[in-house]
Amino acid sequence: MAHCPFDFFTDGKKHNICLVGGGGKTTVMYELAAAWAACGRKVLALTSTHILQPADGSFAADAAAVHNLWQQRRYAVIGTPEFATGKLTLPPQSVYEELKLQADVILCEADGSRHHPCKVPAENEPVLLPDSDIVLAVAGMDALGNSLAQACQRPQLAAELLGCSLDSVIDEQMLAVLLMSEQGSRKNVGTRTYYIVLNKCDLIKAAQQGEMLRLLVGEGIDERRIWLRERGDSKC
């Protein structure tokens, strides 16, 4: 079982974290939320776009339900239900403002990828919370070896960014550019601290993992801010 390598997980500070990029964001968000909650931290999870309403009883319809979950050492998911879709959208601002003052950690899925392992954001994406201090970008290693058209959300934007065609096969260099470009996953990060989760690393060879690390570090990110996550990881 893998250990979350990021320094923010054990520093004891209050954090407001936005997750962006490709497939795996929801899983990573809930893993972090569950691990922190098990340590007794008050964890609030939400979305600034759309997310499926959780079926595990972690959705809290009001502040009282949030506090009840926190007392059980569980994380609380808040949002506005869309009954036609079964999804949640951003909660009312007044509810968020009240609860964020009481939470120890806030996790927000701030981007959508329609299950594609990588993406390039559109003009109105991602929807980062203004008060967030960390951006956590996720990319699935199952993107490697597939074409942009197959594996990338908004493939035309990716092709323009990379200067290639839609049928170009994604390699480590291309994926590193998508993760490190300010037109890609680093869009609007600004002064926030940036971390990367390379998801499904058990699908690729050790040499490919090493090449991804080499390319990302070469683009200026500290290796300690990169998590090589496998599908079997169930918590941090």
Give a brief description.
The protein has 236 residues and is an alpha/beta fold. The protein has helices at 25-38, 63-71, 93-102, 148-151, 155-162, 172-180, 206-218, and strands at 15-21, 43-47, 51-52, 76-77, 80-82, 87-89, 105-109, 118-119, 134-140, 152-153, 193-199, 226-228.
Explain what this protein looks like in three dimensions:
The protein is 28% helix and 20% strand. It has helices at residues 25-38, 63-71, 93-102, 148-151, 155-162, 172-180, 206-218, and strands at residues 15-21, 43-47, 51-52, 76-77, 80-82, 87-89, 105-109, 118-119, 134-140, 152-153, 193-199, 226-228. Strands 4-2-7-1-9-11-12 form a 7-stranded parallel sheet. A 3-stranded antiparallel sheet has the order 3-6-5, with no helix packed on it. Strands 8-10 form a two-stranded parallel sheet. The longest helix has 14 residues, at 25-38. The chain starts with 14 loop residues before the first strand and ends in an 8-residue tail after the last strand.
Helix-strand blueprint:
Layout: E1 15-21, H1 25-38, E2 43-47, E3 51-52, H2 63-71, E4 76-77, E5 80-82, E6 87-89, H3 93-102, E7 105-109, E8 118-119, E9 134-140, H4 148-151, E10 152-153, H5 155-162, H6 172-180, E11 193-199, H7 206-218, E12 226-228
Parallel strand pairs: 1-7, 1-9, 2-4, 2-7, 8-10, 9-11, 11-12
Antiparallel strand pairs: 3-6, 5-6
Round the mean pLDDT to the nearest integer and report it. Answer: 94
Oligomerization state: single chain
> How does the overall form come out from the CA principal axes?
globular
- Overall structural class, as computed from helix and strand content, comes to alpha/beta
Helix content: 25-40%
The largest sheet, given as strand count, sense and whether it forms a barrel, is: 7 strands, parallel
The CA-CA distance between the termini, in Å, is 8 Å
Fraction in beta strands: 15-25%
Strands of the biggest beta sheet: in what spatial order? Answer: 4-2-7-1-9-11-12
> How many strands?
12
Pick out the low-confidence regions: none
Radius of gyration equals 17 Å
User: If helices are DSSP runs of H or I spanning 4 or more residues, what is the number of helices?
Assistant: 7
H/E element order: EHEEHEEEHEEEHEHHEHE
